[in-house]
Give the backbone structure.
Amino acid sequence: MSFANVTTIRRLNSEEMDRFAAVRATAYRIAPEIADALYSLRPMYAEGLNTWAVDAKGRVYISFEGWAGTWTVNQRAFVLIHEVWHWLRRHPQRTKAVYTEHPEWVGQVWMKATDMEINDDIARIPDADLPEGCVYPQTDGLPEELVAEEYARLLTEKQEEEASEDGDQDGEGSPSDGDQDGNGGSGADGQGQGQPGNGSGESGHDHGAGSLGPCADVPDSAQDQADSLDGGISEGLRDHIEKAVAREIKNRAEKSIGRMTGSMRDWAMERLAPPKVDWRRKMRVSVHGQIIAVKGHARDSYSQPNRRHQDSSFIIPGRRATDPNVIVGIDKSGSMLGGDLEIAVSEATGVLRSRGVKKIRVMDIDVMVGTVSTQRGRKLGALDNVGGGTDMRVAYKAIYEMNPRQRPTNFILLTDGYTPWPDEADRVPGVQYLVGIICGEAVYEKLAEPVPAWITPVHIPRGDDE
Ligand SMILES: [Zn+2]
């Protein structure tokens, strides 16, 4: 299913809202543990969608037509629970990451895999009633309670095995092929583009290998339309909602109320654990957001040249201007533990590569406070021992003073956070700044607090911060 035939995205009219409210109330009776999420999602009506879908900002795109028009209220309630879990498990965000790392999963493999991650839990609900055609791990003879990435790997292996065993079959085995090549390489904004091929080919497959769950990948164009109606749920609020649901699941599991499956409990424990487990994803999301911002800014700059920065290389027509080019700055001060730093550097560059960033430069910053201050004619050697004493402002200055051709679109600093921060005057408009602060849980907030608003902080826990 896809957004290929969606004509309009709009708010629900009052009749549709009533119908949706009835579905939601039914879903609540079936799965009260997800109430906080259920009642937070923002319903949008997608004309021509004929199925339901959800995006990263918690907008649930619904339709009462086509296939979705055949569902009973009870089935819609199960589909809504299914969408809530796509959102809670952050499938829309993971889709973006996965599609750059694993182009071979684009489309059906990944959509199936995410449905499998959810549907084995939903199937355990007594009288589970998802519409016919939904996929479960057992649909493909796979074990339950795995995550989507594992299912996708297994599904691909299985496909390859089958392809090598009998190469003929129905010739439909990898529906993404035909379409993906058409737009995958163009540098277009990514996500969801692999889908239209499925939309046209799916009608003949209600069962077996060709069947898809009740979901569509939400393309950026649809999300843009939705943005103009409802900005959706912010990351901060989402984290809050996720934690509330996670606590509810944990409580129910402890008191043996309801049927919390192992993978639901795992999900809850992960959400309730300190952010340690999550920083890679957070960094991924931040970096991705920054890269999107770079692209947006490049477009803005092209249409509205910035008087203050009228160097010719800043405004390059065409796609080239949108290619992110990243400098990763590394705090080499004595206070930085080698192991943690190494991990952070390799994680950061890995995240960037997985986002398709090809231009990555690394900048070592080992100017001690003493050295910098000496240039101002003062000796501050003693300060070297205060929290390791590095002045990362030199890095921001260096970026500012760079030849515009050398300047990055994104500057990511990895530091222990014990540094003074630059003034607004050292900010280069158009450059996206992110800082990964490698420190213990207890001090992160204090260290992140003085970071200027134009630099996005991400907490990177120390390896020994168990
Ligand atoms: Zn789904």
In short: The first strand starts at residue 8 and ends at 10.
